[in-house]
Design goal:
The protein is mostly helical. The chain is built from 3 helices and no strands. The radius of gyration is 19 Å and the shape is elongated.
Length: 110
Amino acid sequence: MSTEVKVALALAALALLATAVLAGVLTVRLIRARRILRDAGIPLTHKAAFWGALLYVISPVDLLPDPVYLDDIGVLLLALRTLHMAAAAPRGPGGLTEGWGGARGDRPHR
């Protein structure tokens, strides 16, 4: 095997490892975001986006073959964006952002 092929295989393996790590990190962030969903008053559609993304990541059915995690990463990013927008949305009495006195994007951590 030539040196160029070895380098190309090493780079491909490194790229696959990086995408797998990124998908893992995003999955962990999505699972941690579940705590926000419990009692935060997030609408059901946003909760469904969370659970749908989690099911898609662990399901064997993919838009792209498994060695390429780009579709999983995209689904996780979309779910996290949906949750972030739902959590940042102003709420009425008893809502998520009432009573803590900060700016809209500066929520307290629990």
